[in-house]
């Protein structure tokens, strides 16, 4: 890829930044993982590129903001998509606000995360890998300023493990995965995680009740496991 | 100077060891081995520990050349694990602590694995993959606790391997996982199997059901048992490496430590090594003496706790089958 420069190596892919058709673009290359069997690697990569593009399209249709897809190139194992310049990860955002002691704002922020997840689930989009690294905080006015929540959009990214599913089991697991990721990463999360559920419920309304029951189920499964040896 | 005696018996391994200031003086072990096609059950496993515990204790003391009066603290596995074997060994630890009038400390089994891995390999602050017959966790240290970033949402990876060994009637001596590893080396044809990763969590029960159902027909179609062992290992280890890599990226960590019985599988170590190399991270792993359940890891973790000033009340010296890694405050770590 000409004129593209490597900016980050995530767990799944290498991210390159450059210009494609005049647009500021991220090229997400799911490079060959030499540790796994070639046929497994090829299958997984193809599946995930498909999953990611499908989920991004589905979000677009549902009116949920995500990076726009410019090109999907199976041969190069790469998706070209919109580069969100004025953004930072929710992980960094939460840490910054925690340092400043802005707990009230963080509660509101968690509420918004719950809202976002509720919106995804309302449309039967299961993310599959929700962490604070996989949610971007984007400034609406195209400036590097993250001081006021009303100026910020939340954008979910990294849909490689996503799928479309209407049952409550997968939604419950999605919620559980997010909870675990937040609790293990952020000290503040334990206190304000209920805000996520609140935001989720507000968005997803009646559907949320059954998901919460499933989520409690999934949680209990985790705790009850005896873990011998 | 702390001399600690450690008792481990949470599953089918009975281990007793003596450690003196991080130096291993003895590390003795007996394994309860069941016939091919059978797993170990609590009652029989406890019986095995009961019959062997005093022999192993004597062996550990003799090898270490430490006299009971020189011991500073007696440590035992408090959990998690199988109830009956845990209780059997805890009774012995409690008894000798009273006879010799020494303090007693209950140790979390998972913490024992992690601390032993750090001691042996010198890893400083690694992301830990803990894989055994009963546990599958991806752990990183933060804010005075070993936090669980990912884990199995159903059965442990070692349990999946053990039970697949029973399907093929592979010998349990020295362990089903070791025998699968040897067979897998001779396999070459890759059979696609279910692959189940949810964020940093994994699931193995679906793969096991698939294997239990399909093994017979796969063998008839001309796949060899070696091919099946190979394919199973390639698939489930890829899941483990993938989720570990995800945790590594999420935590910005540059070290990986593999502990637990499955951790001595060289193919798993090799795959993890390749992943680490691709991201300039460093891999730390140990061999069967320390990967597989042992007494010395309990002694070592207990010694760390003891040095940090931790003491246990006599009435707290019970055992528990459920004891999560993140329940323990790591008072001995200063970072």
Summarize the structure.
Chain A is of the alpha+beta class and 229 residues long.
Secondary structure: elements and pairs:
The complex is a heterodimer of chains A (229) and B (335).
Chain A lengths: L4 E5 L4 E7 L2 E7 L8 H25 L6 E5 L4 E5 L4 E3 H10 L3 H20 L2 E2 L8 E5 L12 E5 L6 E2 L3 H18 L3 H4 L1 H11 L2 H18 L5
Antiparallel strand pairs in A: 1-2, 2-3, 3-5, 4-5, 6-8, 7-10, 8-9
Chain B lengths: L2 E6 L4 E8 L2 E9 L10 H23 L8 E7 L3 H17 L4 E5 H13 L5 E5 L4 E7 L2 E7 L5 H11 L8 H9 L12 E2 L2 E2 L2 H16 L4 H27 L3 E5 L6 H13 L3 E4 L2 H4 L3 H13 L28
Parallel strand pairs in B: 1-4, 4-5, 6-11, 11-12
Antiparallel strand pairs in B: 1-2, 2-3, 6-7, 7-8, 9-10
Helix pairs in contact in B: 1-2, 3-10, 4-5, 4-6, 5-7, 7-8
What would your notes on this structure say?
The complex is a heterodimer of chains A (229) and B (335). Chain A has 229 residues and is α+β, with helices and mostly antiparallel strands. Chain A has two domains: 5-82, Phosphorylase Kinase, domain 1 (2-Layer Sandwich); 87-224, Transferase(Phosphotransferase) domain 1 (Transferase(Phosphotransferase), domain 1). Chain A is 46% helix and 20% strand. Chain A has a five-stranded antiparallel sheet with strand order 1-2-3-5-4, with helices on one face. Chain A has a three-stranded antiparallel sheet with strand order 6-8-9. In chain A, helix 6 packs antiparallel against helix 7 (207-224). The mean pLDDT of chain A is 93. Chain B has 335 residues and is of the alpha/beta class. Chain B has two domains: 3-113 and 292-327, ATPase, nucleotide binding domain (Nucleotidyltransferase, domain 5), CATH 3.30.420.40; 125-290, 2-Layer Sandwich (Nucleotidyltransferase, domain 5), CATH 3.30.420. Helices cover 44% and strands 20% of the residues of chain B. Chain B contains ten helices and twelve strands. In chain B, strands 3-2-1-4-5 form a five-stranded mixed sheet, with helices on both faces. A five-stranded mixed sheet of chain B has the order 8-7-6-11-12, sandwiched between helices. In chain B, helix 8 (266-278) links the parallel strand 11 (255-259) and strand 12 (282-285). The longest helix of chain B is centred in the C-terminal third of the chain and has 27 residues, at 225-251. Chain B is globular and about 65 Å long. Chain B starts with a strand and ends in a 28-residue tail after the last helix. The chains are: A alpha+beta (229), B alpha/beta (335). At the A-B interface, helix 1, helix 4 and helix 7 of A face strand 8, strand 9, helix 7 and helix 8 of B.
């Amino acid at each position: 890829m000409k004129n593209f420069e490597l900016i980050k190596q995530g767990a799944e892919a290498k991210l390159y930044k450059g210009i494609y058709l005049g647009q500021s673009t991220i090229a997400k290359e799911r490079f060959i993982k030499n540790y796994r069997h070639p046929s497994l690697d090829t299958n997984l990569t193809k599946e995930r590129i498909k999953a990611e593009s499908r989920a991004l399209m589905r979000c677009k249709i549902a009116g949920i903001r995500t990076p726009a897809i410019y090109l999907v190139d199976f041969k190069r194992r790469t998706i070209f998509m919109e580069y969100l310049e004025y953004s930072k990860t929710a992980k960094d955002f939460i840490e910054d606000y925690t340092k400043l002691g802005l707990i009230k704002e963080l509660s509101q922020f968690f509420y918004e995360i719950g809202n976002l997840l509720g919106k995804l689930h309302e449309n039967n989009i299961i993310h599959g890998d929700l962490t604070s690294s996989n949610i971007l905080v984007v400034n609406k006015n195209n400036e590097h300023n993250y001081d006021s929540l009303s100026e910020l959009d939340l954008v979910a990214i990294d849909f490689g493990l996503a799928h479309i599913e209407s049952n409550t089991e997968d939604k419950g697991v999605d919620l559980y995965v997010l909870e675990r990721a937040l609790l293990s990463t952020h000290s503040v999360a334990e206190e304000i995680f209920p805000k996520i559920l609140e935001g989720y419920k507000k968005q997803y309304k009646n559907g949320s009740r059954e998901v919460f029951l499933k989520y409690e189920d999934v949680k209990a499964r985790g705790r009850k496991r005896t873990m011998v040896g | 100077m702390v001399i600690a005696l450690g008792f481990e018996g949470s599953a089918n391994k009975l281990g007793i060891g003596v450690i003196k200031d991080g130096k291993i003086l003895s590390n003795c072990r007996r394994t309860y081995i069941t016939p091919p096609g059978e797993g170990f059950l609590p009652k029989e496993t406890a019986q095995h520990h009961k019959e062997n515990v005093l022999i192993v204790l004597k062996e550990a003391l003799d090898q270490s050349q430490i006299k009971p009066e020189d011991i500073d603290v007696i440590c035992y596995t408090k959990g998690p694990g199988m109830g009956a074997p845990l209780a059997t060994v805890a009774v012995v630890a409690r008894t000798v602590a009273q006879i010799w009038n020494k303090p007693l400390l209950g140790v979390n089994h998972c913490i024992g694995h992690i601390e032993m891995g750090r001691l042996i390999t010198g890893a400083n602050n690694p992301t830990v993959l803990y894989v055994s017959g009963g546990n599958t966790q991806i752990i990183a240290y933060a804010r005075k606790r070993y936090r669980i970033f990912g884990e199995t949402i159903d059965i442990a990876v070692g349990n999946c391997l053990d039970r697949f060994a029973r399907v093929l009637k592979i010998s349990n001596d020295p362990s089903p996982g070791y025998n699968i590893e040897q067979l897998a080396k001779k396999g070459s044809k890759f059979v696609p199997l279910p692959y189940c990763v949810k964020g940093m969590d994994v699931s193995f029960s679906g793969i096991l059901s698939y294997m239990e159902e399909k093994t017979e027909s796969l063998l008839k179609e001309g796949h060899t048992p070696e091919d099946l062992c190979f394919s199973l290992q390639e698939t489930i280890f890829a899941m483990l490496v993938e989720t570990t890599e995800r945790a590594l990226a999420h935590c910005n960590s540059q070290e990986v430590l593999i502990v637990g019985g499955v951790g001595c599988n060289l193919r798993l170590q090799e795959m993890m090594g390749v992943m680490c190399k691709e991201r300039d991270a460093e891999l730390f792993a140990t061999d069967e003496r320390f990967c597989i359940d042992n007494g010395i890891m309990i002694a070592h973790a207990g010694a760390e706790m003891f040095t940090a000033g931790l003491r246990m009340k006599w009435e707290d010296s019970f055992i528990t089958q459920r004891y999560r890694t993140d329940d323990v405050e790591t008072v001995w770590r200063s970072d």
